[in-house]
Write a structure and sequence with these properties.
The protein has 601 residues and is of the alpha+beta class. It is built from 18 helices and 14 strands. Strands 1, 2, 3, 4, 5, 6, 7, 8, 9, 10, 11, 12, 13 and 14 form a 14-stranded mixed beta sheet that branches. Helix 3 runs antiparallel to helix 4, helix 4 runs antiparallel to helix 5 and helix 6 packs across helix 7. The chain is elongated, with a radius of gyration of 29 Å. The N terminus and C terminus are likely disordered.
Length: 601
């Protein structure tokens, strides 16, 4: 295989790419999409039935007339729903299409006695059967929430399509029904009842059958998803966690993100030798790994091969977020994927850190001001805290969270105070008040996870909103100053996305493209803290370690980006905090903890 060469844009590209997925599933999926659209159009629009395109549509699955129009719409909707699964080579989508197309052929012959329709339907079935070996992808992890999502999405689509059906016969309408009357008619029709809108001739039957078919389709698909066997997303088992901890004990000092592999909402694949592993989560069909593989570098290819085999078996899109330059080189060499520089990790060497000097003046003045206000800091290992204090810290971190949902995936552990995480470091700020709050004198919390035996990596930062500004700076300085006594020589801070572009774009001589790119990043920082995290990290004069995203194709980047935002908690479907019931935080145990972490300022 050819070597990878990093260019000046931060991209690692192979000269010779690996094999790409076969095109047959994509062609079949496109054909099903076309057939579905034509079937829906043939069942909905009267004028379409007299167009040239109808000559094609009338010999595809579905036919005309009240019953046949409903059949055409149902068949078309099902084919549209199946197209995505066929494109991803899903075995169950293939089975459904194999059953649906002969059913459409039978309907053609029984209702319209169309031999051509039967031939066309079976002709569409032929490539499915011939290339059945291409459709071997296993189903995705699923839960009962899929049924609710199906009801909302398909129900909304049925409502909109129903409005089109009701309004597609203007010359047959009796009177001039209002929009509310039409919506009411659609809602009644989806449930199988007659609504307030009336038509002349047989159009009433056509509309009624079509709406009833849409309602039945919504109900059947929702019931199927609700009562099919549940396969929840994989979780890190006790055995998996034990194996990962053994690898981290030997090789945990190589990657600052290694300990985050112990998140219990991740799955893991091990190399055949058991000396390396890759942890991941599946989000919206993307198999999303984070950081470098865990374990011996020599065994990484075996773990990566298992990862790619798993992605191939389920037709998931493989991607890696936040791997190091070494990790990116191994991933691209072993898989034929590409790597793109995503940003930089801020790493502070404890021996080089000092508050002295002009460059640290702002941080120094802020820390002195807060200390004069009566704040004090404590930096300890988790194992040195009492259970009562840990309970108070956990509740405070939950209450001080600034978003409705927890954020974090690639650089967040997702828990505080687990007995198995005794080596984690916690820095707290305290201020004795005359009127203490619900958490006593606690005002801010920083949580760090181990990075080998001589380093820590920042996990989460939380503070009381009523506390003085600068709590995070105070605690980071406190942690860096206490590090030598704890045997810590390096501290990894936050990850700064697109740091190089932000830094170069503000310098004199930057070109118009770079300045425009920086301007866009500054604009996006209103929602994603891109610029603020970079500036916060830069206060401590760190060295910058580049991090990369590994992907299969440029066209996958938007999908990978959306999946990463879902995993990190920036995009979610959770209820607002005010509408959620507050749950008591359970006592932590080695393999069941409810809290989530966040790695953002």
């Amino acid at each position: 295989m050819s070597d990878e060469v990093p260019d000046r844009s931060g991209v690692l590209r192979r000269i010779v790419r690996g094999p790409r997925p076969e095109a047959v599933p994509a062609v079949v999926a496109s054909a099903c999409t076309l057939v579905g659209v034509l079937d829906v159009a043939a069942g909905v629009f009267p004028r379409f039935r007299h167009s040239r395109m109808h000559a094609i549509a009338e010999v595809l699955p579905g036919a005309l007339g009240p019953f046949a129009a409903a059949l055409a719409i149902s068949t078309g909707m099902l084919l549209l729903l199946l197209a995505h699964g066929l494109r991803r080579r899903k075995r169950r989508a293939w089975r459904a299409a194999v059953v649906l197309l002969p059913a459409g052929a039978v309907a053609q012959f029984a209702y319209r006695h169309s031999l051509i329709g039967v031939v066309i339907s079976l002709a569409l079935l032929a490539p499915l059967l011939r290339h059945r070996s291409e459709f071997e992808a296993l189903p995705d992890p699923r839960s009962r929430w899929r049924a609710l999502a199906n009801f909302v999405l398909v129900g909304a689509g049925s409502l909109l399509l129903g409005l089109v059906i009701v309004s597609a016969h203007p010359n047959r309408l009796v009177g001039d029904p209002s929009l509310s009357d039409r919506i009411e008619h659609v809602l009644y029709g989806l449930c199988g009842f007659e609504g307030p809108v009336d038509y002349s001739g047989n159009t009433s039957w056509t509309v009624a059958f079509s709406l009833g078919a849409l309602g039945l389709l919504t109900a059947v698909t929702t019931i199927y998803l609700a009562f099919r066997p549940e396969h929840p997303a994989a979780r890190l088992t006790a055995q998996d966690e034990e194996g990962l901890r053994a690898l981290l004990e030997k090789h945990g000092g190589r990657d600052s993100l290694g300990h985050f592999a112990l998140r219990r909402d991740k799955a893991v694949v091990f190399s055949p030798s058991g000396k390396a592993a890759v942890t991941y989560r599946v989000v919206s069909g993307v198999m999303l790994a984070s950081g470098d593989p865990i374990g011996d570098v020599e065994a990484w290819p075996g773990a990566i091969e298992r990862f790619m085999d798993e992605a191939q078996a389920h037709s998931w899109t493989p991607a890696v977020m936040g791997c190091s330059e070494t990790g990116g080189e191994v991933w691209t060499r072993e898989t034929g994927l590409d790597a793109l520089e995503l940003g930089d990790e801020a790493v502070v060497d404890v021996a080089d850190f000092s508050l002295a000097g002009r460059a640290m003046r702002n941080v120094r003045q802020m820390v002195k001001r807060i200390e004069r206000a009566g704040y004090e800091t404590r930096v300890r290992r988790i194992r040195d805290l009492s259970e009562g204090e840990l309970e108070r810290i956990r509740r405070a971190a939950e209450d001080w969270r600034g978003t409705d949902t927890e954020r974090g995936f690639s650089m967040a552990l997702g828990r505080i105070g687990d007995p198995a995480d005794g080596d984690c470091l916690i820095a707290t700020a305290h201020k004795a008040d005359a009127d203490p709050g619900p958490y006593g004198d606690l005002k801010a919390v920083l949580h760090f996870v181990p990075w080998g035996t001589d380093g820590v990596s920042l996990d989460l930062m939380r503070r009381d909103r009523s506390a003085d500004p600068g709590m995070n700076e105070l605690l980071i300085v406190a942690a860096l100053q206490a590090a030598p006594k704890l045997g810590i020589v390096r501290v990894s801070l936050n990850f700064a996305m697109f740091r190089a572009a932000l830094a170069r774009g503000e310098k004199i001589g930057a070109g118009p493209v770079l300045r425009a790119w920086r301007g866009l990043l500054v604009f996006l920082s209103r929602w994603f803290q891109i610029e603020s995290l970079y500036k916060f990290n830069a206060k401590f004069r760190p060295r910058w370690e580049p991090r990369f995203v590994v992907y299969a194709s440029s066209r996958d980047l938007p999908r990978i980006g959306l999946a990463a935002m879902q995993a990190e908690g920036f995009v979610n479907l959770a209820l607002p905090r005010l509408l959620r019931r507050r749950k008591a935080i359970p006592t932590p145990c080695a393999h069941r903890v409810a809290e989530r972490g966040v790695r953002a300022a």
